[in-house]
Amino acid sequence: MTRHDIHCRYFSQEDLLGAGCLDVRMAMDAAEKGMLAFEAGNVLFPDKIVQIFNDETQERINCLPATFVDRKICGVKWVSVFPPNPVKHGIQNLSAVIILSEIEHGFPIAFMEGTLCSNIRVGSMGGLAAKHLARPDSEVIGFIGAGEQAKMHLIAMKTAVPALKVCRIAAKLDSEEDEFVRQMSAIIPEMEFVKSGTNLARGVDGADIIVTATSAQAPLLKAQWVKPGAFYSHIGGWEDEYAVAKSCDKIVCDDWETVKHRTQTLSRMYKDGELTDDDVHANLVEILVGSKAGRESEDERIYFNAVGLAYVDVAIAIAMFERATETGLGQDLQIQHEMIFEHALLKDWVRL
Ligand SMILES: NC(=O)c1ccc[n+]([C@@H]2O[C@H](COP(=O)([O-])OP(=O)(O)OC[C@H]3O[C@@H](n4cnc5c(N)ncnc54)[C@H](O)[C@@H]3O)[C@@H](O)[C@H]2O)c1
Hints:
By secondary structure, the chain is of the alpha/beta class. It contains 13 helices and 16 strands. The protein has two domains: about 5-115 and about 310-350, 2-Layer Sandwich (ornithine cyclodeaminase, domain 1); about 135-305, Rossmann fold (3-Layer(aba) Sandwich), CATH 3.40.50.720. It binds nicotinamide-adenine-dinucleotide. Nicotinamide-adenine-dinucleotide binds next to α5. Nicotinamide-adenine-dinucleotide binds near residues 86, 213, 235 and 237.
């Protein structure tokens, strides 16, 4: 090792899983602490950089940095979103990598697979919201959409609301419902799974917790299926009719200012003049710190929408990095051994 060695830890998805990083409790804790650090002014959070390669399909790669000044760690999520991937190529839509650097010398400390972290972030934000906004005696959860986000959300919801006993599922294809049940029943064997046969009403009508996590752009969820006392977590784009939000007693977002400029149902309603700032009850962090009320009665219908705050991804990535490092998994990744002009062989390598 020389004085100018730079190296970091590399963690594959399998390293992270093997180290026990698919731990929604750990992620919810990291997300909550991250949000509190942001509120305290301890997070640098510049705008994301978006590069769209196809306006029609929205195939894109985004670069999302954030720094936890108090933890002295800067991170970036480099995330690809290629919506046609599942249908066109049978491969996943979203894939990501994360780099973490220390900010004393500015050197990288970790290069890690990021899809796991990103998906756990979506789930754990839903889980945190459910902890405060769902009825703790909720027993039935209903899904529209059976993809990657739906699966992670089920783990998160079961962690946040342990009383859940029955999971109903509605997707576009029977085969997706079959796969969801096959994979998730292995992870949560005590849960009773009910396939809807692609009948959306059968999937969610009257459920205590409803989750929509689809790639559709259509008002799939109907207000009449959302019973009094239900908690609804909206994950995708336009997935519910406007009447759903209108019939809810509280609307809570991860960050309303961010949500309202995007493209999902609440943003559409805002742009169409169907929803105003006053209709939004709170950002999640206000409920965490107690400055706004969470659930106040058994009959409230509560709507939650998170579009994703990348500093939360970085907060969770730091927690995963620490856990994976403790377990000794991952590999050393040599970035450089010497500074450029220190290499004895440089004269042979340089091309003039
Ligand atoms: N809010 C966030 O922070 C966040 C983060 C990542 C992804 N997302 C969004 O979550 C959504 C789901 O992502 P994913 O990775 O799970 O996608 P995926 O492709 O794995 O799954 C999509 C699911 O949508 C279902 N679907 C599509 N059209 C449908 C219809 N008409 N009726 C019923 N079901 C239908 C499909 O059957 C499939 O089960 C996407 O819109 C994605 O952009 C949100």
